[in-house]
User: Fold this.
Amino acid sequence: MTSSQTSKKQEARGELPPTAWAVLGLLSFPGERTGYELKKWADSSLRFFYWAPAISQIYAELRRLEELGYAASTRSGPEGVRAKRRYAITAAGRAALAGWASDTAEAGPPVLKHGLLLRVWLGHLAEPERLRALVMEHLERTRGELDSVRAALAAADEPDWAFPRLALRWSERQHLAELELTGALLADLAQLPAPVAGGPGSHPGPEVEGRGQGAGDAPTAG
Assistant:
């Protein structure tokens, strides 16, 4: 059996990738939507607590969902290559989505990829003022994201959106926590001693490079 055939069989059993379930989830609320409208909604909801797929991914998943009978589309406007398609969930799609949403399998731990913290981890190679500026920029960006979350909360006032509002409230708290953590990081940076002689990013001399493990070992256990 080819990998393509295996993939088709997995899809038939409902083993879709998370992005497909997310797109189908967007369709599970009342109304029909174009791919562009789904992208805009993902950008103002999903991205605050999960991830917003690219428009190309959304259309790819919509095609997959239609092939499985989980979604259906109709043309709006005149026929032609630029005619918009509006998508809606089918009864089969709603049943499959309900089964996935209520699955008792472990959802998995949250994945954190914090670009700023990676820079801080390498702070011994950076100019202290530049590192502090990066943290300040992150602080301002997080404030802007918090404003966006609150705007999305204010817009999600439909009775059918009670559960999305819960997710957005969680995201609001998460951004508030990020602001608090970033403020604490700034305070921690201020407590660090002045850089050692040689300056940030200086290349160690041959006598340093040639040493084996010893006093300068990485701070790991074992």
Remarks:
- The first strand starts at residue 71 and ends at 76.
- Residues 1-7, 9-13, 205-212 have pLDDT under 50 and may be disordered.
- The chain is about 55% helix and 5% strand.
